[in-house]
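Lab channel / #folding
Pinned by the channel admin:
"Please post every new chain as: sequence first, then the structure tokens as a reply. Keep commentary short and put observations after the output so the thread stays searchable."

First post following the new format, from NK:
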Amino acid sequence: MTTVNSKPQTKSLMITKLLRRPNGATLENITNATDWKPHSALAFLSGLRKKGMDIVREKRKSGENAYRIAKTKA
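Reply from TO:
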């Protein structure tokens, strides 16, 4: 019998997956996925920007801000 050793999903990986969705993720999406407070989630986004990741903030029709990783031009 073979067992598959899967790596546990980190919060960083979870947030990155959320940010790669076409519509991105709201702050509420991120805090629900990580159990972080909003200020911690925003600090994480700031850290991604400092590492060179292009994070875009867009206002949705509902008034909420959504964050996503910008697609790079090839």
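NK: The radius of gyration is 14 Å.
TO: also worth noting, DSSP finds three helices and three strands in the chain.
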